[in-house]
Amino acid sequence: MTPTTRITFDGETHILAPGADLIDLMNRVESAAHGDSTFVTFSTPFEEMSVLVGATTRVRIAVDFNTHAEQDVLPHDWS
Fold first, then answer.
1. How far apart are CA 52 and CA 61, in angstroms?
2. Cβ neighbours around 32 below 10 Å, total
3. Amino acid 78: pLDDT
4. pLDDT at 2
5. H/E/C letters for each residue in the chain?
6. How far apart, in whole angstroms, are the C-alpha atoms of residue 30 and residue 53?
7. CB pairs under 8 A, 24+ apart, for 31-36?
8. Which of 42, 53, 37, 55 lies closest to 14 in space, CA to CA?
9. What is the pTM (predicted TM-score) of this model?
10. If the chain, 79 residues long, is cut into consecutive pieces of 10 residues, what is the mean pLDDT of each piece?
11. How far is CA 3 from the centre of its chain?
12. Contact present, 8 and 59 (Cβ < 8 Å)
């Protein structure tokens, strides 16, 4: 199963396109955060996005290796 990778900028979450170069994206975000505000561009499954990243931008990256784990954890009456 292909993992699902999510990136969140200031509370707005996007799913990255399968095969996205996560290390490259992390490096570009880090560079933008240390310098002048810069647009960082990445692909989602449906579109290309550009986000303005600066020193105060909060960024979170999550890689979900088991995208169906929730189904096994929830009690039956929650379904």
1. 16
2. 20
3. 56
4. 83
5. CCCEEEEEECCEEEECCCCCCHHHHHHHHHHHHHCCCEEEEEECCCCEEEEEECCCCCEEEEEECCCCHHHHHCCHHHC
6. 9
7. 32/57, 33/57, 33/59
8. 42
9. 0.78
10. 92 95 96 95 96 97 76 52
11. 12
12. yes
| AA identity, residue 22 | L
CA quadruple 66, 68, 69, 75: dihedral, nearest 10: 180
Both tokens assigned to 16: 């990255």
pLDDT given for residue 68 in this prediction: 58
What does the domain layout of the chain look like in residue ranges? 4-78
**Distance, CA of 57 to CA of 30 (rounded, Å):** 10
Q: Which two tokens stand for residue 74?
A: 């929830």
Q: What is the per-residue pLDDT for 1?
A: 73
Confirm if 61 and 30 have CB atoms less than 8 A apart. no
User: Which amino acid, one-letter code, is at 12?
Assistant: E
